[in-house]
Amino acid sequence: MGILFGTDGIRGIAGEGLTAETAYRLGIAVADVLAPLVSRRPCVVIGRDTRISGDMLESACSAGLCAAGCDVTSLGIVPTPAVAYLVRTLGADAGIMISASHNPSEYNGIKVFGAEGFKLSDALEESVENIILSDSFIKNSPAVKGGSIGRISRPDGAADAYISHVSSILAETKCRSANRRRVLFDLANGSACACAKKIFTPEHMFGYAASFIADTPDGMNINDGCGSTKLDALASAVVRGGYDIGIAFDGDADRCLCVDEKGNIIDGDAIIAALALDMKRRGKLSGDTAVVTCLTNLGFHKLCKSSGISVSVTAVGDRSVLERMLEGGYSIGGEQSGHIIMTDYATTGDGEVTASKVLSLLCENADRPASQVFGEMVHMPQISKNVEVGHDKKNAVVEDAGVCEALRAAAEKLDGCGRVLVRPSGTEALVRIMLEGEDAAELERMAEDIAAAIKRALGE
Known about the structure:
- By secondary structure, the protein is α/β, with parallel strands linked by helices.
- It has 16 helices and 19 strands.
- It has three domains: 5-158, Alpha-D-Glucose-1,6-Bisphosphate, subunit A, domain 3 (Alpha-D-Glucose-1,6-Bisphosphate, Chain A, domain 3, 3-Layer(aba) Sandwich); 161-373, Alpha-D-Glucose-1,6-Bisphosphate, Chain A, domain 3; 382-457, Alpha-D-phosphohexomutase, C-terminal domain (TATA-Binding Protein), CATH 3.30.310.
- The protein has a seven-stranded mixed beta sheet, sandwiched between helices. Strands 9-8-10-11-12 form a five-stranded mixed beta sheet, sandwiched between helices. A four-stranded mixed beta sheet has the order 14-13-15-16, sandwiched between helices.
- It is globular.
- The two termini are 27 Å apart.
- The mean pLDDT is 92.
């Protein structure tokens, strides 16, 4: 992990940790890295979510690209997976998404995709970062003139190809129910607002009627009490309104989580489990394997073992998941948080593709409610706790002797019937604690002990 790039691009408070100058420098850096890879003027597509800072950062990034001789296609407000898809569809050389995903509105971020729709490799990210941080390079970078300066286009309907792609997946649904089911979507006041109402229409959603909440973005209300990280409002609305399922996206719509008809959360582990089981039954699960991270609930592993599905475990982050999937040729993987990748349809986590497959599976199980279709996996108690730790200290603090002793004590108490994991966040100034076992109250006490050890290590 570099100085600027975390596990999911560059991220920070807009105007403070992430400035217009940084975005401008990134534009120049991406253009410089691309130039040797293409034999013509490079073209980059740019999308953004609904944050108020998106205009500033997109304009600055586009200016840097144009100043270095790249053409830019502005997609406007679109989901992150739309950028990844349209890079390939439009024949662009790279894609840039301006979004801080599930974070509050004051944050923003920048993700970069290569020509094949995958996030940049660590090596290319490092090259881009070195240029951004090099004052001498920026000051002495070759200036283009006249007709060599890049141009910006803003085509109407830029996201239509992506909308058609996801709609075609949804249209594959073969609903066996005579009764129309009702689904409530939470758009997080984010990127999904640009596409979801065009995808999840009666024309494409055989057997479903859709309603929407958190669908009026104002630049400041993205993820504010809504979306995949704050499911209470959706759960209440589903139960109150008698919906069959609720589906929530995050700010840039690369995540999808659900709630069942009873208002219970269907997390990423449960979604992957249900989809993988269905794919195995239909002979569509490549290698009979699902790829998940070290945070995936032990209940997932137990279900897969009893169902003849192998589980490949990676470090946290959808980049790690995708790398393993590509290495093994696997077709489904993801995270508990709702980043779910299905390589038959996408090159990155795609919330709207995931939602389409969730609705398809529910529709094919005409006589079963969502609580049953997505309830085959039994979750073991899992406790998560975050401790605020500065970016400059979070890696070192997890190696502190007192913290290591607290971890050893917790592992000893679990005695092989659970697990404990402490890790620095890849995107935020946090150390994350996760414990899993049979007794939730005991897990909570152990989490408090570890959090206290971290605070002592910080001198608090």
